[in-house]
Amino acid sequence: MCFRDPSKIQFINKTLISIIPKIEPFTKLTHFCPISIFNVSYKVLTKVLAQHFKVVMQELISLVQCNFVLHR
User: What domain of life (predicted)?
Assistant: First the structure.
């Protein structure tokens, strides 16, 4: 879906920010903890891309730059 048409990434890249009370009674803004909730498909897409880039980067980075590649 997103690989064929990158403009569709905006539909899955939605994040909801919510605040949850840390203590009761909550009278100040510091008594709340912000959390972010985002789409599971966005998480899956980023993990797939990270795994793909891991393989590709090993071929692109030279042996001199060994700090960037695993097991070198």
Answer: Eukaryota
Q: Which long-range contacts (CB under 8 A, 24 or more apart) does 39-43 make?
A: 39/12, 39/13, 39/14, 39/15, 41/12, 42/12, 42/13, 42/14
Is residue 13 packed enough to be buried (19+ CB in 10 Å), middle (13-18) or exposed (0-12)?
Answer: middle
| Confidence band of 16 (pLDDT split at 50, 70, 90) | confident
Q: Nearest CA to 19 among 40, 38, 36?
A: 36
pLDDT at 37 over 60: yes
